[in-house]
Amino acid sequence: MNRHFIDMQAIARNAMDKYGFNFRFPEPVLLEVNALQVRVFPEGDQDGRDMRELLWSSIDNWDSMDLDQLEYCEGGANGEIHVRIAIADVDLYVPKHSLTDQYGVHNGTSVYTGIETFPLFPDKLSRGISSLLPGQDRMAVVIEYSVLRDGTTRPVDVHRALVQNKAKLVYEDVGEWLEGEGPIPQPVLHVPGLKEQILMQVDVMHRLKKRRIENGALDLDTLETHAVLEGVSVKDLVVQKQNMARNIIEEFMVAANGAMVSFLGKADIPMIQRIVRTPKNWGGIVQLAALHHEALPVVPDSKALSLFLDKRRQADPERFPDLSLAVVKLLGPGEYITLEPGEPPYGHFALAVTDYTHGTAPNRRYVDLVNQRLVKSVINRSDTPYAPEELVRLSAWLTDREKASKKVERFMRKAAAAVLLRDRTGESFDGLITGAKEQGTYVRLIKPPAEGRVVRGERGLFVGQKVRVRLLKTDPYNGFVDFEYIGGIKK
Predict the structure, then answer these.
(1) What is the Cα–Cα distance from 21 to 87, expressed in whole angstroms?
(2) What is the H or E stretch that residue 226 is in?
């Protein structure tokens, strides 16, 4: 074997194992899934509606086949726009306590390493019979809500339905078209009415986003790099660009999850909510703002923080992603908690919403499957499938699994950077300091957008500082990229 060969797949699997994930499906799980067949309007279903005629479409990554949601809008009275979100009915194929379910609850989430994807469920399920693939009849849970001119939402209904995806769209293609940087995507061009449908979705997105920003939602922009592979070799690192297409899906899903919480709340049953508590280190955020000559209130205030971030985005777009990352770390992580009937909600500080959960991606996150089962129990007028104490245990476990998945993904970004740079030891690069604490000082290169640690000459460096660094060494198997500080760069 070539002595320079780095087995990135082995590194990914070792990382999965290190953080407590299974990285291959046991044979009994595969046998259980392989025995499944597509089901439409299961026997005894009294609530399913045939909604295949609607102009449903999806927007996702170009290579995504585990399609969890479809979108459709139509105009209403007084400028209202009625939104329908169809969510893949994964519970139809994964009964609680089945072998597939047990595997899913252990891992808790799909893990995307950039080298290999470790799905929550086997491909026949998540990329096949439960996926809302174009041209296929699929059962779904449909969340309906109306969006008023001012961006406020009104929950309408949640029910089961038979749907069919008319077009699988891609974030980059749709985003470039909407932003005037690319041609109209072929599916939008050739499916009658789809252009008007997407433009209506843009209208809804702007309404929803404007309303949330007014309420204090934080418009953050952290950089996430992805490895570009050629065979098994890392050839480049690219930054995922936020665009209007991604904004459409994000805003639609925030509103859909809020409507789901409203539906469960009216049913008076316990549920899992997604929260970001009052910032764990608001004092640190205040100090960070002071470094930019801005004063934030002593008491946590999402609107004031949102205004500060908007100013910094306009003033210094190059450093804004690193400022965003610093704010994210000071806010603290999101978590899942169980909310019993009558309990006041904690809210989601960063999204500026009071009632929020995760329920729109059951092929990719186990908590979404739990919420889907709760919703279906209300629709079917059956007993709730989870006792409060079981939801409490699941909330804690799935919070842990999400944190672990982020650690795997961060480690793999570092490993990919180490592979990309391994033959460039001794070269110098321009970069920005992204972290400067006792635990270590970190730098993000401008090009390629790789991050590493400054292990020599780091004293006195501060977050946001432009620097010149020299690469000292890399270690892909441990995710190390070490630099030496060699000088500052003038603004």
Answers:
(1) 26
(2) strand 225-230
Q: What's the Cα-to-Cα distance from 393 to each of 166, 398, 466, rounded to whole Å?
A: 39, 9, 45
SS3 state of residue 466? strand
CATH number of 422-488: 2.40.50.140
Those residues with Cβ within 8 angstroms of residue 372's Cβ, 6 or more apart along the chain or in another chain = 87, 89, 90, 91, 141, 359, 362
Q: How far apart are CA 120 and CA 122, in angstroms?
A: 7
Cα separation, 315 vs 323, whole angstroms? 12
**Phi and psi (nearest 5°) for 285?**
-65, -40
Specify the amino acid at residue 80. Answer: E
Gap between the Cα atoms of 298 and 302, Å rounded: 12
Query: How far is residue 372's CA from residue 360's CA, in Å, rounded to a whole number?
Result: 9
Residue ranges of domains in the chain: 8-276+336-416, 282-332, 422-488
Q: Tell me the mean pLDDT per 10 residues along the chain, length 491.
A: 74 97 97 94 65 97 94 96 98 97 98 94 97 97 97 95 97 97 96 98 97 82 76 79 93 95 94 84 86 89 88 86 80 88 77 83 98 96 95 97 95 94 95 84 91 93 88 95 88 55
Which of these, 229, 206, 254, 443, lies nearest to 355 by C-alpha position? 254
Q: How far apart are the first and last CA of the chain?
A: 47
